[in-house]
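Pilot study result, target chain (327 residues):
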Amino acid sequence: MPETSTKRVLLAAPRGYCAGVDRAVIAVEKALELHGAPVYVRKEIVHNKYVVETLADRGAIFVDETDQVPEGARVVFSAHGVSPAVRAAAERRSLQTIDATCPLVTKVHKEAIRFARDERTILLIGHTGHEEVEGTAGEAPEHTIVVNSPDDVDTLEVPDPENVVWLSQTTLSVDETMETVRRLRDRFPALQDPPSDDICYATQNRQVAVKKLSPECDLVIVVGSANSSNSVRLVEVALQSGARASYRVDRASEIDEAWFDGVTTVGVTSGASVPEILVRDVLDALAARGYETVEEVRTATEDLMFSLPREIRADLKAKEAERALRA
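Predicted structure:
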């Protein structure tokens, strides 16, 4: 790689919001516009502090479980998805639900249902306790075993080694997931693949961009929250791909002056639940430190869009009809 003494920033593209996050955040915003505050949201709508705080300021109330929502009230299910048990609990309380589950997560849920129907053991690669894993495993709890890491494979026990299939959380490291799959296949040669890759396009694209810029970087700053799996993975990918150092920050104020000793080139990216305003703040903070030259490193162009949840679309249609009657 050519060396340079000029301070510069390599800005990853794609970065930030993915289609599923954008859809979920807009769903809460539209629910507030249509129905007024409060609108309840089960768990964080997406894993980003700034987004959650901004929506809370507008009247969203975030709860851990549906039993914290007043009976009959309106509740949004987060982009990470929920289990059938959560849906049933909401129905018992007559809650008006808005399902903002990312369609790519819904795809994995449907795969789990189908494989369980075929009596297969599902080896779900993901992180125990993550909302997405809880939701997917909840579709077929008696058929699902969560595999947290490649090292978990050695101690796995399954009812029938000839009838196993793997699925994965959508926000994992592509490389680590493939290593886990490799070790699973060594242990269970009959392991079946899902019909398509479960790791979402946005997660993969952001990792590819970081892989490309990291070898030239003395430091890579990842904007994203600590509970954002895909943001945490970007730090790991940067280090594995040749960056001398990499840190995650929620916002520019968390940047540490000690990181810049001997640093000429800084890479910047953001997780899939991060609004661009937070990246711009980081770029401003870097410019103030002399890193004014910004070069974009683009590895893909994203144009995927998802339609809003059907409940929001129905409410918008009803509102339009109401306006037409008044006109």
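One observation from the pilot: The two ends are 65 Å apart (CA to CA). A full batch analysis is planned for the follow-on phase.
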